[in-house]
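Researcher: Structure prediction, please.
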Amino acid sequence: MMKKMTGQNSRSTLKRVLGRVAPHRSYIITSIVCAALTTGAQLMIPIMTGRAVDYMIGAGRVDFAGVKREIILIAVLAAAAGITQWIMSLCNNRTAFLVSRDLRDEAMSRIPELPLSYLDGHLTGDLLSRITADVDLFSDGLLMGFTQLFTGVLTILGTLVFMLAVNVRIALVVICVTPLSLVAAAFIARRSYKYFQEQTEARGDETAYVNERIEGMEVIRAFGREKESLEEFDGKNNRLGESAFKAVFYSSITNPSTRFVNSMVYAGVGLFGALFAIGGGITVGELSIFLAYANQYTKPFNEISGVITEMQNALSCAARLFEFLDAPAEIPDEEGARVLDPAATEGNVDIRDVSFRYDKDVKLIENLSLQALPGTKVAIVGPTGCGKTTLINLLMRFYDVNSGSISVEGTDIRGITRESLRANYGMVLQETWLKSGTVAENIAYGRPDAPQEEIERAAVLSHADSFIRRLPEGYQTVISGESDHFSQGQKQLLTIARVMLCHPPMLILDEATSSIDTRTEMKIQNAFGKMMEGRTSFIVAHRLSTIREADCILVMKDGHIEEQGKHEELLEKGGFYAKLYRSQFEGTAI
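Model: Predicted structure follows.
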């Protein structure tokens, strides 16, 4: 059953690959025409050579004029074959490049369409391997298929036609032995696909592991886990090595098998041809033609066997990429969904009986209700895993609720376009994200057309201006996404400046000041306070000292709102919030 499914998958993948090639049919047609001309010219050369041999009948009986004429024709045909082969290579390279370019473009455009649940459930390194390494291997296999498959098939067919035209009986010897080569190639191809598929999966797993370990090298060294990491890598590397060895083993026996059959063909032609020549059935020149054709006829089988091997690898890579492209997209916005205008948004957020689970068997948020009036500061606190960040993900509609509803300005957010909903929120996360480019471009990420003075004003408000001006080129300093120019706190100041520049009507802070010193944090809180006057904000905080001035504090526990109120009110109640507060400032356990 597994073999049958593998064959079906291979055929399905091949069909989709041909569909990707179809838009570039003009290059393919040109390549096929050039392949036919190249093959035709190469097949004519042995005939010219045989005639030249026959012109040299014996000593003193050489037809030099005839020999010269054949030599000139051979030179012309060789030049024509070289030119058409060069054009064919250009077309094949262009087609392979365009197909791989289109696949990468589609893969990159697919990423924003995928739900976060898919991206969260797949390793970054594995996705990276599919978009880069797998596409490269697929492109290489496709190029080899175009380059050698066309000419190989045409050479085999053309050679048979020419041999039948010269002598049918000797040609039948070739035809009778040929199926042995096809059977050997087909037998090996069926088994090599499985191992090439395992090889690509193991490569993706190893790439993901290496990516993960490089990003976490500081933690690995801090906990002394270098040896264990190497041992785990050895296990993954051994798995890749085993699958690669099996794939290479099966593919490597293809060429010797076809060469053995080809040698039998050549020997058969030589033996039967010599017998016919002795009996006067054919001339010496015709025998030389047959030997040349036997060599040309058998050579494509070796090339095609190599092409089959590479195509098996290419198809397994293409299957992994198509699996990524076929992943279900994020549920599209409803037809006629409301576009939320930031200028007309007051910040009225209503959460009613919301329940949500990442895993259907693990409870998280159950029957959560909350109403945030315009201009209020809502702080969300609670122990790790209680659902604080999950609530933020639901507000931004990174995930959809399982039941209940979240409304903004009286409209269920499922009836609002995602783009306009998120444009009304300014979001600062605990994890910073900077892109390669200038400091000014990073601050203006949400407003690329923002004038320089507004960028600098946002940096001043976020207290990032002072360290930016100390950089070699100030706001025009070029940084990488993982720049070592800045500390974690400085990176966070830049992300805060990015939000301040957009000046959204609602704000979400998910541990936004966790990497900033207390003095700077107080200044930023004041800046946020000025910016969010009359606007709604949601603040996730572990340091309870930062949310004392919140209009409403939600104390979450096990996905429910345990308590709700202002700081002083909750302390007076002496409930769960009071225990959290004392655990931070008095060192008592919860």
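Model: Residues 1-6 have pLDDT under 50 and may be disordered.
Researcher: Thanks, that helps.
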